Amino acid sequence: MIVTIDGVAASGKSSVASGVARALQVPYISSGLLYRGATLLGLQAGLDLHDARALLVTLQAQPLRLEPLAEGNRVWHAEQDVTEQLHSTRMDRGVSVVAALPEVRAWVDAQLRALEAPFVAEGRDMGTNVFPQAPAKFYLTASPRIRAERRARERPEDVPAIEAALILRDQLDAAQSAPATDAVVIDTGPLTLEGVIEAILAHLPARVPSA
Ligand SMILES: Nc1ncnc2c1ncn2[C@@H]1O[C@H](COP(=O)(O)OP(=O)(O)OP(=O)(O)O)[C@@H](O)[C@H]1O
Ligand SMILES: Nc1ccn([C@@H]2O[C@H](COP(=O)(O)O)[C@@H](O)[C@H]2O)c(=O)n1
């Protein structure tokens, strides 16, 4: 069984995916972490983030590993856990450039498709491109202001600056962020985190066929 949860930036995808996965007692997969990991390697190597060839050479020479722990996914680079370096304003600015490169997308897709189901996968194109065969698909939205207010509780930045950055990232990610035609779209704005998780669980068939 694969459940996909896609959506716009900071719509709650990873928090919701974690809660749904916990309820189903399966792992969850944060695909965005692989794009963030690729961005980190590019920045550390001083590469032009538009240079797909150089990025791929770096990724192949220094593999990244996604560890889908229930309490929060981790990313390993060789023997080093680099997860804490992946969520910052600097990383948010660079990641959409890297994620627009077809070669990097193919690299991430291959990593994800190699994982053994069952799991809950969250990102932008889990339901459309990576796991189109998934039997249960969801797409999370919320207004930029609400998302910025939520994020401001995690980062010491003001709401308008976060909101502007989220709107920009949504625009840069638009090509890969359309909801699947068979996804259930949930506006998380009026819902609590627990409310979103419950809404998704309520939509799941009692027994989801293997995908
Ligand atoms: N329904 C909700 N009600 C209140 N807060 C929420 C809700 N959903 C998510 N949050 C909070 O919003 C913030 C962003 O959530 P989260 O990091 O899960 O989003 P995301 O879509 O995975 O973000 P990103 O795209 O940047 O990786 C977190 O602080 C989370 O606790
Ligand atoms: N399936 C995906 C997932 C992510 N991206 C890109 O990575 C960035 C970070 O993702 P978060 O989920 O951590 O926000 C995101 O802004 C996209 O650029 C993607 O393209 N496809």
Summarize the structure.
The protein is of the alpha/beta class and 211 residues long. It has helices at 13-24, 31-44, 52-61, 89-99, 102-113, 126-130, 144-152, 159-172, 193-203, and strands spanning 2-7, 28-30, 64-67, 74-77, 80-81, 119-123, 136-141, 184-187.
Task: Describe the protein.
- The protein has 211 residues and is α/β, with parallel strands linked by helices.
- The protein has a single domain, classed as P-loop containing nucleotide triphosphate hydrolases (Rossmann fold).
- The chain is 46% helix and 16% strand.
- A 5-stranded parallel β-sheet has the order 2-6-1-7-8.
- Strand 4 and strand 5 form a beta hairpin.
- The longest helix is centred in the N-terminal third of the chain and has 14 residues.
- The mean pLDDT is 94.
- The structure holds adenosine-5'-triphosphate (ATP) and ligand L45E5XJ5.
- Adenosine-5'-triphosphate binds next to helix 1, helix 7 and helix 9.
